[in-house]
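Here's my example:
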Amino acid sequence: MRKFIFKDGNRELLLPVTPPSFTITHGIKIETIHIHTLGDVNIAGYGTLAAIKIDCLFPAQPYPFALTDENPYTYVKTFQKFCDKRKVIRFVIPDTPVNLPVLVESIAYSERDGTHDVYATLTLREYRQLNAVKVEQSGTENQPRPAAAAIDKPTAYTVESGDTLSSICRKLYGDANLYPKVADANGLTNPHLIFPEQILSMPDKSQLVSGR
């Protein structure tokens, strides 16, 4: 019998009956963008958070396969409380890779056959803590960023991982605000969508500035 455990701090809640089924989704975010002269391109992003769905039985009878004879609505109220209070709990299935902090997105429940047993479906979402980005400061005064040498003739630039169009313009022209002009020069309908190994045409800075 496989155990399904929900941990709330030092407290553990064990499902009284091993669920007949559960589903966990794991994947990455894939974004489709349209590149001029290339067409649609799929760009692989970072991992998505797991979505979990569990079909449960909260029995009202002392069945031999049930781990407890707790009132079935005790479980319903507990999961409703987790949901309403936006409580982060840990979901664990021993002897599997499942050991995740989760939020209870919803619980749907019903009685079906006059036994007073409660059939429920739990929908869980993996939780990820959002941490603020710390910006390092070397002093109390703002120091000007040294400007890079401006391009004095048209050239090509190969996009690297982590680049944005504005960071490229800052690096090559010393002016991040020129990115819309560079986007126009390359036929980019969305200047925020560039990808590694993409080759960009970088015009002479004087041409971009004069076109403002």
In short: The chain is about 15% helix and 35% strand.
